[in-house]
Amino acid sequence: MSRCPLQPLNKAGNNWLINSTSGLTSPTPSANDGKHVACKAPPDSGSEYYNYKGFYSIILIGVVSSDYNFIWEDVSGKGSLSDVHIYNNGELKAGLVTF
Fold first, then answer.
1. Distance CA 13, CA 10 (A)
2. Residue closest to 1 by CA, chosen among 61, 56, 75
3. Integer Cα distance of 51 and 45 in angstroms
């Protein structure tokens, strides 16, 4: 089991947001979902990574296109946060609002 990241990981979907704002053709988002990925609690993290399901986790949220390719993902959420909290405070919402 890996340790929870202490900083956000790079997001592969940044090109999708850049392309859509520049007017270039971009994939159509077809589905999004979040998943708790189990991990060991980082030292001195308290309950930040402890989720309502009863284990320590990070949250993976992804958006896929109609041809099953990831066009955006975020794996920086601490397990105690909800999908909605991550969406409301993340770059995906900002990118969709300016679309």
1. 9
2. 56
3. 13
- Stated pTM of the model: 0.63
Q: What are the CA-CA distances from residue 80 to residues 29, 69, 73, 76 (Å)?
A: 27, 28, 18, 12
Q: pLDDT tens digits, the chain, 99 residues: what are they? A: 545 444 444 444 444 444 444 454 555 667 778 889 999 998 999 999 999 999 999 988 888 887 788 888 888 889 998 878 888 888 878 777 654
44-75 residues labelled b (16+ CB within 10 A) or e (exposed): ebeeebbbeeeebbbbbbbbbbeeeeebbbbb
Matching residue, tokens 């919402």: 93
Residue type for 74, please?
D
Q: Is 65 helix (H, G, I), strand (E, B) or coil?
A: strand
